[in-house]
Amino acid sequence: MSEKIKRPRPRLPRGFRDVGGEDLVARYEMIDRIRKVYERYGFAPLQTPTVEFAEMLGKFIQETGLPEEGVFSFRGDQPEWLALRYDLTAPLSRYVAQHRELPKPFRRYQVGSAFRIEKPGPGRFREFVQFDIDTVGSARMAADAEICCILCDAFEELGLAGKFTVRVGNRRVLNGVLEAAGVDTEPGSGATTATRVMRCIDKFDRLGMEGIVKLLRQGRMDDSGDFTEGAGLTNAQANVVVEYLNAARKSRKDVCEALRGIAGESQEGNRGVRELVEIDEFLTAAGYDESRVVFDPTVVRGLTYYTGPVFEASLLQSDSGGQYSMSIAGGGRYDNLVERFTGQKVPATGASIGIDRLVDVLKVHGQLGQKSAAGPQVLVTQMDEKLANEYVKWTFELRRAGICAELYLGRGNIGKQLKYADQRGIPLALIAGEDELEHDAVSIKDLRRGKEVASKMAERSEWLKHEQSQQTVPRSEMAERIAGLLAGHSGL
Amino acid sequence: MSEKIKRPRPRLPRGFRDVGGEDLVARYEMIDRIRKVYERYGFAPLQTPTVEFAEMLGKFIQETGLPEEGVFSFRGDQPEWLALRYDLTAPLSRYVAQHRELPKPFRRYQVGSAFRIEKPGPGRFREFVQFDIDTVGSARMAADAEICCILCDAFEELGLAGKFTVRVGNRRVLNGVLEAAGVDTEPGSGATTATRVMRCIDKFDRLGMEGIVKLLRQGRMDDSGDFTEGAGLTNAQANVVVEYLNAARKSRKDVCEALRGIAGESQEGNRGVRELVEIDEFLTAAGYDESRVVFDPTVVRGLTYYTGPVFEASLLQSDSGGQYSMSIAGGGRYDNLVERFTGQKVPATGASIGIDRLVDVLKVHGQLGQKSAAGPQVLVTQMDEKLANEYVKWTFELRRAGICAELYLGRGNIGKQLKYADQRGIPLALIAGEDELEHDAVSIKDLRRGKEVASKMAERSEWLKHEQSQQTVPRSEMAERIAGLLAGHSGL
C-alpha cells in the first residue's frame, strides 16, 4: 500500500486546462480564417518567445527588484528574473525597440498564449490565447480606424455579421473633461484619480449608470454586501462624467458634436474629438457605417497604457435589441510603450482578439465545427488476425484515395471494435473475414444507421442477424463505394 | 543622464528568439501540411497547457522536493512547484492517466513549444516547437509501424521525397544482447551500465565505430583534449556490442536474421527481433520499402523511458551517397509512462518532429516559401493629403477584390513611401494625385521593374522623368489591371 502513496494523482494546476477535439479544431479553423483577414490588410506574422526578462514586460516593481504579482516569474540559470508574457503587446514593444532598423510603420500580427495569475472563473484561464494585430510607427488616426475595420472583417469572416459592434472611445476626451473639472490627471507613482475614474467606467456594461455614479463618488456595495471604494469625485465632478457618459448617440457625427460641447475649452478634450472625427471620416470612406462601428464614451479600457482612441468589440445579445453581452476583442493607441526602452516616442495602435472566449461564442452561435469535423471516416476492423496484412493494405489504399481511414490497433472482438468506432464518432466500418476474402469482397457497415449496441453482441453470427445497415461490395470498388457513402449517397 | 541609466536595454534571455517573416510563414505552412497527414491517419488534436505541476512531468527530485535542473520551474500562488513542459509526451501521459474514460487506443497529435535549460547552440533553443503524434493503449507493433509510415508521409508532403530515411531500432534486442553478455541491465536508482551503453551508441552518427568502441570501454578524448568517461565494458562485452552495431544490412529481413544470430538464447533479445519482424511485415504490406524505412541497430535514442522499438528520421546529405546528416524526428515505444500515475500498464508509442530544425532544412532544400509569400501585394500611396478618403476607398476596393493591399500609414513624400514598399518587398504601388483624379485614373508602378533608389528623388516631377515602369489606367479598371500584373501578365 505504501507504493500507492507515492503515485502522483494526475491533475492540472488551477486555471489551466486541456483543450481537445472539436474545440481545438474550431480554434485552428478560427485562427486560420482570422490570419487570412490580417494578411489581406498587409500584416505579417511575428512570434516572440513565451519567456521574456521580467524587466522587459514592464510589470516590474522597481523598489524591490521583484516582478509584480500577477505575473508568473522565475529564474533559469541566469541571475535576472524571467517571466511568462502576460500579453503580446509588451513583447512587441521590446521587439520594436530592439530592432530599430525595421521599416516603419511596422505592421505585425501574432497569435499565442499569454499567462496571468488571476482568479480563474468561467471562461477565465491562467493561460489564454490572444490574437493581436498592431501598427507601430504611425500616429495617423487612419491606423486606428483600420484596426476597427480589420476587427469587423475578422468577425464577419467567422460568420458573425450583424451580431457584433466595434465600439470606439477616446481617452483624450475623457482626460480633457476630467482636467476641466479639476480632477487630478497627471501620471504619478500610484493610480491617479483619473485612472480610478477610468476603472469605474470600464465596469459600465456590468453595473449601469446608477452603479457607476456610486463608484465615482464614495463607493458601492454589491449584492453580496462587499463594499468597493469609490474614486472620490465631488458631486459636481461626477455630474460632468455622467454628462460625458450620456453623450452616446446613434450617429458617430452626433457623438462628436455632443463631446465637443462637453470638452469645452479643454485642449486635450478637443484634440480627442478631432481624432474621433478623423476616424469617422476614414470609416465612412471605407464603407463601415454605424451598423458595425459606433462611438461610445463608456468605452475606456482598463489598462493604463492607452493614450488615445480605445476599442472594444462586443457581441450583441441575441435575445435583446442591443445590449452588449460579451467583450470579444479590445485595444487602443499606446504611444509610450516603446519609449520606455529607447527614449524616443514611437506611436502605436492595435487590438487583441480573445480566442478562447470567441470559440465558446461561436459554438453557441453554431458558426464553427460543421465543416471541420476532423476525425477518421472509416475504421478498418481486424476480424481475423491471419488477414492483418490485408487490413493494412486496404487502410493505406483508402488513405491514398484521400479518405481518412483508421486501422483498429487495439485488441478485441468485432463488437468491441465497433463500439470504439461509435465512441470516436467514426461513421463507417470496413469488415472482412475469410468469407469476404474468398469472394474478393469487403463489407461496409454504416454506423450512423445501425444504432444497436454492438458491444453486447460478441459473436459475429449473432451480430449479423441483427444487422441491416451493412453491404458487401467487390474489393475493387471499396474506395469508390466508401467515398460515395461519405458524400451522402445512400447506396445501402 | 541619470534618466538614461534607468532605461532597460531591449533584449532576450539566452536561448530564446523571435521568429518572423518568411520563417514563420514557412512554419505555419509546414504545420498545416503535417496536420493534414496526421488527420488522414485518424489522429485528433489535443492541446495541453504550457504549465504543469513539476511532479506531473516526472522531473522531480523526491528526496529534496525540488524540481530537477534542466526544467524551468517556479511557483504561482500555490505551494506546489510548477514547470514549463520539457516535451509533449509527459503531459500526454498525465492527460491519459487523468481521463481513464478515453476510448483506447487513444490517438492524438499535438504541436507546441517545449522548454529546456540547455546549453544553446546553432539550431538549439531553450524554447522549441515539437509536433508529436502518439498512439496510447495499443501494444501492437502495427501501432509502431504506422508511426513510421506517418513520418514518411509527412516528409513527402513537405517535398522531401527521396531525401530522408526513417531508421528503426529496438531496445529489447540490445538489452537482450547486453544481458547475454553479462552487462547490468536492471533499472536502479542511477544510470545502469546498459543506459550508459545506449547513450554511447546514440552518438554513433557523430563519432563512428572507432569512437564508440572507446566510449564503450574506458573513455574517449576528443579533438579539444576533453575526456569523456566510458561505459566501462570489458573487451569481450564491447565486442558483442560492436557485432550488434555491425548487424546493419540493406534489407530489413536480413537485419532481423543477423540480429537473431546475435541475440542467441536471450528471451528479451528474441522478443525484440520478433517485434521487428512484425513491423517489417506491416511496412511491406503498406508499401513502405527500404528506400524509406530501414532497420538500423545503431538507433537506440538517448531517453531512458523507451521500452521497445525506437525511431529516428534523418535527412540524407545531398552530397554523399547515404550519410545521415541531421535528425529531424525521433520517437519510440514507452509502455511505462502512464503506469507512473495509475499503476496500470498502458502501452504507448509515438514520435516527435522537430519543427524549428525542419524549417531550416526546408529552406536549404528550397521546399518552402515560394507559394507562401505572405505580405502585401500593393501599397496604396498617399500623394496628396486632401485625397486621403479616396485612397481609403481604393484600398478597401482592392481588398474586396481579394488583393492584399496596404494603405501607407506613415508620413513622408512619395520617395519615402516607395522606399518603404521596397523594404517590405511589396511589388506594386498605386499612385494618384489631382491630375489622375481629374482624369478618373490611377497610376500603377511596378517596383519589381524599376530598381532605382526612389528615396533619393523627393520631387515627384523629377522622379517621373526617370520612370518607365509605370502606367496610368482608368480608375474603373484598377483592380483588374493590378490582378493581371500580379498574375504575371506584363501589361506594361
Describe the protein's architecture and organization.
Two copies of one chain form a homodimer. The first copy, chain A, has helices at residues 2-6, 21-40, 54-57, 89-98, 141-157, 171-180, 193-201, 204-216, 235-245, 252-263, 267-286, 339-342, 355-364, 388-400, 414-424, 434-438, 460-465, 478-486, and strands at 19-20, 44-47, 51-53, 60-61, 66-67, 73-74, 82-84, 106-115, 127-136, 164-170, 219-221, 227-229, 293-295, 309-316, 324-333, 348-354, 378-380, 405-407, 428-431, 441-446, 470-474. Chain A is an alpha+beta fold. In chain A, strand 6 (73-74) and strand 7 (82-84) form a beta hairpin. In chain A, helix 6 (171-180) packs antiparallel against helix 11 and helix 10 runs antiparallel to helix 11 (267-286). Among the domains of chain A are: 12-139 and 335-374, Bira Bifunctional Protein, Domain 2 (BirA Bifunctional Protein, domain 2); 378-486, Rossmann fold (3-Layer(aba) Sandwich), CATH 3.40.50. At the A-B interface, helix 1, strand 1, helix 2, strand 2 and strand 3 of A face strand 1, helix 2, strand 2, strand 3 and strand 6 of B.
- Average pLDDT of chain A works out at 87
Low-pLDDT ranges of chain A: none
Largest sheet of chain A: 8 strands, mixed
What portion of residues of chain A is helical? Answer: 25-40%
CATH 4th-level superfamily of the domain at 12-139 and 335-374 in chain A: Bira Bifunctional Protein, Domain 2
Oligomeric state as shown: homodimer
Order of neighbouring strands in the sheet with most strands of chain A: 2-8-9-16-15-14-10-13
Distance between the termini of chain A: 56 Å
Question: In CATH terms, what is the fold-level topology of the domain at 12-139 and 335-374 in chain A?
Answer: BirA Bifunctional Protein, domain 2
The chain pair forming the largest interface, with residue counts per chain, is:
A-B, 102 and 103 residues
CATH class of the domain at 12-139 and 335-374 in chain A: Alpha Beta
Decide which structural class fits the backbone of chain A: alpha+beta
Which architecture of the domain at 12-139 and 335-374 in chain A would the CATH scheme give at its second level?
A: 2-Layer Sandwich
Total DSSP helices of chain A: 18
Please provide the count of β strands of chain A.
21
Shape assignment of chain A: elongated
β-strand amount of chain A: 15-25%
Rg of chain A, nearest Å: 29 Å
